[in-house]
Automatic annotation (TrEMBL):
Signal peptide: none annotated. One of its GO terms (biological process) is aerobic respiration. The keyword Transmembrane helix applies. It comes from Thermalbibacter longus. Gene3D superfamilies: Cytochrome c oxidase-like, subunit I domain. The keyword Ribosomal protein does not apply. The chain crosses the membrane at residues 30-52, 72-97, 104-124, 144-168, 180-204, 224-249, 261-279, 299-323, 344-372, 384-406, 426-446, 471-503, 548-568. This is Cbb3-type cytochrome c oxidase subunit I.
């Protein structure tokens, strides 16, 4: 019995069995993720204050070094370390299952840590200024590519370890149907395997080129392979974020998925179609047929969009149904007004849905499609889109779930609870202002990845085309929004670090209303022989979620309006050939 206790503990809050090996590995990945989030946030502030033309903080060498570092640290290192922690949690703790081959998990973590530290050092010190994409003929030292490849192999091993844990749990009889949370993580893991293998296939020839083993690298082939990683990395986040959305809805309101089967189908649609959208990065690349481009960024990508629209209705509908069952049945939106807005997890859920769906998702479908893409690509509108999806939506969701999982895993009382309640709103406000400023500047044609849009140090290129007063206002919004968002990010880091280091040790951290069934599958209860509905499946009259339907229709109307405006603007562009 003592031997079993040394290997597992029972969580006093949820009743779940926690494998101690898994617990330690979750801690290591989570702490590393937060460290990279802090580094990336600091770099983001410096970059934003440079793009704010009135301040123009950094010299050009530092700007490009920090842009390169910021992209890798935030989109790859912070996100993937956090997601690996989630994979371990979803395949062990959530299933009350033992971890299989803990050594494999530590090997994966060690490779990811070494690779990420070396790559970050080379980028931030200016030795590997090749930007996030590393397009040839730009060349970094061989050690940089080796470090990124080591990280990628470590991440692949972490995903394989997740799958091994699931297989082990199934063989031992610990789990039947996977909880929706874990099922969504499985979707993320499948996308991750594809993305990481594509990235390795792109970077390995470049590494061989830098050490002189191959004479050259075809830039077109590199771009085709690379965007399997560059685009796919964002879609790993999408599937993992959806898992967190369902978890936060359940944790904070007691929501049960209105139709779990449809939600699972939506995740399968991601696995089948989401990476097809990578082709929108190659819209004007030579050597790729027009039909290939159009099929991938229209018909195939729409399959993934349908998946997102299912979640966009399912999650608010689940929350509305839960709140109406608690007695908030009056009118269309009483349930929403009486929702737990003071709960950090709910605040993170709502702000993440808004930032990802409204601010980022709509723009992503528009600029990701054929034709309309031409008026936005290589402008600030593109980074505005993925900052709203990954930096805003995904990060906000991951922050929200951390307020529950960190106290449970570290067995610490959450500190600075008032900060935790306020932090999602501060972060969302900053990212909204930032996204609007960056997106509108891009709409006015301001280029991305550019140190000085006035070319002040190059007399032959000197221009005032981007010195319009509107652009100055938009870039000021970019800078001010970044300052507010970084303050929100710093609040999160302070709460989490304070909890880990200073929080009172306790087996029962106070987390509000939380139950072990929050992440578990909804039991399917059959009606009785006389047609009565069982207690597990309550009866309802009329349409159950009118408020969520109105919200979904409003979202679709906004989507259609912005899409139509984009096509109108495309028709207004003079395409004269001289």
């Amino acid at each position: 019995m003592q031997a079993v206790a040394a290997l597992q503990r029972r969580c006093q809050v949820t009743g779940l069995l926690v494998d101690r090996s898994a617990e330690r590995l979750i801690m290591a990945n989570a702490v590393t993720a937060v460290v990279y989030l802090a580094i990336g946030g600091l770099l983001a502030l410096l970059i934003a204050l440079t793009r704010w033309q009135a301040i123009h903080l950094l010299p050009y060498e530092s700007f490009y070094a920090f842009v390169s570092t910021h992209g890798m640290v935030m989109l790859i290192f912070w996100i993937i370390f956090f997601e690996v922690a989630g994979l371990i949690f979803g395949s062990t703790v959530l299933l009350s299952a033992r971890m299989v081959v803990p050594t494999l998990g530590w090997i994966a973590y060690g490779m990811m840590l070494i690779g990420s530290v070396v790559a970050t050092y080379l980028m931030v010190t200016g030795q590997a200024i090749v930007m996030f994409t590393s397009y040839p003929p730009l060349k970094a030292p061989p050690l940089y590519y080796a470090a990124v490849l080591v990280f990628a192999v470590g991440a692949i091993l972490a995903v394989v370890h997740f799958i091994i844990n699931l297989v082990g749990a199934r063989l031992r009889g610990d789990v039947g149907s996977l909880p929706l949370f874990t099922f969504a993580l499985l979707g993320a893991a499948i996308i991750a395997l594809w993305s990481l293998l594509a990235g390795a296939a792109a970077l390995l020839p470049v590494f061989l080129w830098t050490v002189g083993l191959v004479p050259s690298v075809d830039p077109g082939v590199y771009r085709l392979l690379y965007w399997g990683l560059g685009h796919g990395a964002q879609q790993i986040n999408l599937a993992a974020m959806v898992a967190v959305w369902y978890g936060l809805a359940s944790l904070t309101t007691g929501a049960k998925v209105v139709n779990e089967g449809f939600s699972r189908i939506a995740i399968v649609l991601y696995v089948l179609f989401i990476n097809m959208g990578a082709m929108h990065h190659l819209q004007v690349d030579p050597g790729i047929g027009t039909w290939v481009r159009n099929v991938n960024v229209s018909y195939f990508m729409y399959g993934a969009v349908i998946g997102s629209l299912i979640h966009a209705f399912s999650i608010p509908a689940s929350v509305e149904l839960a709140m109406r069952e608690k007695g908030f049945r009056q009118g269309l939106f009483t349930w929403l007004r009486r929702a737990p807005w003071g709960e950090p997890g709910f605040a993170a859920l709502v702000t993440s849905l808004f930032l990802f769906g409204v601010m980022g998702g709509v723009s992503g479908v528009i600029i990701g499609g054929p034709f309309v893409n031409m008026i936005s690509h290589n402008t600030l509108l593109v980074p505005a889109h993925f900052h709203m999806t990954v930096v805003a939506g995904t990060t906000a969701a991951f922050m929200g779930i951390s307020y529950y999982l960190v106290p449970l895993i570290f067995q610490r009382q959450l500190v600075l609870r008032s900060w935790a309640r306020l932090q999602p709103y501060v972060y969302a406000l900053g990212m909204t202002i930032f996204g609007l400023g960056m997106g509108l500047a891009g709409h006015w044609g301001v280029p991305r990845r550019h140190w000085d849009i006035t070319f002040s140090t190059a007399r032959a290129l000197r221009t005032d085309i981007f010195e319009q007063p509107e652009i100055a206002v938009f870039l000021a919004g970019l800078g001010i929004g970044a300052i507010i968002a970084v303050i929100g990010g710093a609040m999160f880091v302070a709460v989490i670090v304070g909890t880990v280091l200073l929080g009172r040790r306790t087996a029962t951290p106070a987390l509000g209303k939380i139950a072990p069934e929050a992440f578990l599958p909804v039991p399917i209860a059959a009606g009785g022989s006389d047609g009565e509905v069982s207690a597990a499946e309550p009866s309802h009259e009329g349409f159950e979620v009118p408020g969520a339907l109105v919200l979904a229709l409003a979202f679709l109307a906004l989507f259609a309006l912005l899409y139509a405006i984009s096509w109108y603007e495309l028709s207004s562009v003079p395409w004269g050939i001289h």
